[in-house]
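Propose amino acids for all 333 sites.
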């Protein structure tokens, strides 16, 4: 409410005054009129075809602009105008009614369809980031975003969209998607066995690592045994792996860790490995399960007491001249 009041500014005298300002040659006045939420729809529709880019951008970001003006701006020649429009329509998408007979909703979906098919990847990326959690949009529109050639567009939808079923995900996996798309699918909150099987049979090692780290993935024991059997000869699977016992699921689950120090912290009771260069640390952590744990340290009571520190040493380096000066006796002048 406060934002709307601040956006209003001085009150408009009337429709004729607004019409005069919209058709005037003063660009500053048109730029002040375009972002106002109390401007008439026909005035904003007229300003949607203004020759000034900042005026059209202000109309594109105005939530009270009519959808007919948004349809014009969806095909604007300026990229920033279309990005502002994509951001506004994406924020309005979660509140669209599910009724197909609603005229405003149909016009908004028409604008969204034009933005999804835009040639600029940045426009499609903004739309995908805004609608990735929506469950009231057509599935065809979400599938088009999920099968996009850009990972920045398809990734958020594949990872978060609730409108994609297991059949849709298997079809996307079988269609040879863009590199990184399988990893986005593997990071979904819940994955069925068929989707997990399709990812496990792929040659994408990063997606398999993400699948094993996903606690919501339904991985069968036979599938896990096959993955473990073929993991050693692969270069991407030589990263440290920690075996974590899951009391909820029952069987042992393997989860990757990208940091050698974290892996060593996991196995501090089973190996003497410390922070070392990557290959040596990886070999030690990979063979940690087959090693016997080291001998425990002696109790604290039997440890050798630390010698008390009797002198206080300064961290500041002392030069020879300073030492001689300090050794001289003090004499009054």
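Proposal:
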């Amino acid at each position: 409410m406060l934002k709307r009041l601040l956006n209003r500014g001085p009150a408009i005298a009337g429709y004729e005054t607004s019409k005069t300002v919209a058709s005037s040659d003063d660009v500053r006045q048109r730029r002040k009129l375009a972002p106002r939420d109390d401007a008439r729809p026909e005035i904003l529709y007229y300003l949607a075809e203004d020759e000034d880019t900042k005026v059209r951008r202000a109309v594109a970001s105005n939530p009270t602009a009519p959808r007919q003006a948004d349809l014009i701006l969806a095909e604007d020649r300026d990229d920033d105008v279309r990005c502002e429009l994509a951001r506004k329509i994406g924020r309005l998408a979660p509140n669209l009614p599910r009724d197909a007979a609603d005229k405003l909703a149909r016009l908004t979906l028409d604008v969204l369809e034009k933005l999804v098919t835009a040639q600029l990847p940045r426009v499609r990326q903004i739309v995908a980031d805004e609608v990735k959690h929506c469950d009231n949009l057509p599935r065809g529109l979400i599938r088009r975003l999920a099968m996009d050639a850009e990972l920045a567009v398809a990734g958020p939808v594949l990872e978060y969209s609730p409108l994609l079923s297991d059949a849709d995900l298997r079809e996307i996996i079988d269609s040879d998607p863009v590199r990184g798309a399988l990893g986005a699918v593997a990071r979904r909150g819940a994955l069925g066995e068929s989707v997990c099987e399709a990812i496990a049979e792929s040659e994408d090692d990063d997606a398999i690592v993400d699948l094993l780290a996903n606690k919501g993935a339904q991985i069968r024991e036979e599938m896990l045994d096959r993955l473990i059997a073929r993991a050693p000869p692969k270069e991407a699977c030589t990263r440290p792996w920690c075996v974590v016992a899951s009391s909820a699921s029952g069987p042992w689950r393997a989860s990757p860790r990208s940091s050698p120090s974290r892996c060593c912290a996991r196995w501090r009771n089973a190996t003497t490995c410390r922070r070392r260069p990557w290959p040596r640390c990886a070999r030690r952590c990979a063979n940690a399960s087959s090693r016997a744990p080291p001998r425990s340290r002696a109790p604290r009571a039997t440890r050798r007491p630390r010698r008390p520190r009797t002198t206080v040493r300064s961290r500041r380096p002392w030069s020879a001249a300073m030492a001689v000066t300090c050794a001289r006796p003090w004499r009054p002048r």
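The longest helix spans residues 79-92. The CA atoms of residues 239 and 279 lie 9 Å apart.
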